[in-house]
Design goal:
Length: 305
């Protein structure tokens, strides 16, 4: 039985190239009920778990703060998410838990069966467990992304990959890892966004590098965020990387993003590989310090560290 229940030839042809909405049945699986989530939180490597909190203003992205879960049990962590304002990000669950590896294999086998010529790699199945009304600020991702809603409801705004939402220079800084994936947001841009209201059984995927932001509804939210690459997506990332190098090293004013495997794109692939081998660019990502820990006594409370 298919995981996605509304594949069409048109959706298969547009997959990875456009913003698409799908229906799925993952939310009905026992692994996403409370007991399954508690087991996931207990077994997932604690030093790899992202624990975050944030402010309420969608413009104030610098209020995104990192914390630690300490030694809280999985059941207590789930209770903390139910009663506080936190966002738990469990990246690469498919590398740490065999049942998530099998789930990833199942999902990508289905995608390959419905999307002509699709090749994918660098699969990252991230589990997101987050509190009522929590949000993720305006940002973009370098890989391709699909967001599967399992519990609760959230609203997702997806913006065009174009000015003023994201300029070429801002995109280059993110790909070169000179800056964080989060950046300044103007609420006026909501007028140009696609809005997706996700409830259990809905999934949305968007064009590579599309800026987006997320707001939870007034309840616990559980989602599966899947990142992956294709040869075309990796080529695009390398072209953008090369453009950043050419702008910084040779003074190129408006380097163009070539699509596909054109001679120009292949030349920039060589530039990107050479720059990486020679370490011409030094990443300078924003590293968040750990500023709080979850209180084991008062669930939902945050203690300074």
């Amino acid at each position: 039985m298919s995981i996605i229940t509304d594949w069409t030839p048109e959706k298969g042809a547009a997959f990875t190239k456009a913003n698409l909405a799908f229906e799925h049945g993952l939310h009905e699986r026992p692994m996403f009920k409370d007991e399954g989530l508690e087991e996931l939180l207990d077994r997932y490597p604690r030093d790899q778990m992202g624990v975050f909190t944030m402010g309420e203003d969608p413009v104030a992205w610098t209020t995104w703060r990192r914390g630690t879960a300490g030694t809280l049990s999985g059941s207590r962590l789930l209770e903390a998410a139910q009663s506080g304002r936190i966002w738990l990000n469990l990246r690469q669950t498919n590398l740490h838990l065999p049942e998530y590896a099998r789930l990833g294999d199942e999902i990508f086998a289905e995608k390959h069966a419905h999307v002509p010529g699709l090749r994918t790699f660098k699969h990252d199945l991230g589990m997101l467990i987050s509190s009522a009304n929590a949000q993720v600020f305006y940002h973009l991702d370098v890989p391709l992304v699909s967001l599967w809603q399992l519990r609760g409801q959230k609203r997702v705004w997806v913006y065009p990959v174009a000015d003023p939402y994201v300029g070429d220079e801002a995109l280059e800084k993110i790909v070169l890892r000179e800056t964080a994936e989060q950046f300044a947001f103007d609420p006026e841009w909501d007028k140009g966004a696609e809005v997706h209201d996700l409830t259990p059984g809905k999934m949305v995927t968007w064009a590579q590098n599309a800026p987006h932001r997320i707001e939870n509804g007034p309840m616990l939210n559980v989602s599966l965020s899947i990142e992956f690459m294709t040869p075309e997506a990796l080529m695009r990332a390398n072209v953008i990387y090369a453009n950043g190098v050419l702008r910084r090293r040779l003074g190129a004013r408006r380097p163009r993003i070539q699509q596909g495997f054109t001679p120009g794109a292949l030349g920039k692939l060589a530039v990107a590989r050479g720059a990486k081998a020679l370490k011409l660019q030094k990443p300078n990502p924003r590293v968040l310090p750990t500023s709080f820990r979850l209180d084991g006594e008062r669930l939902g409370a945050l203690l300074p560290v």
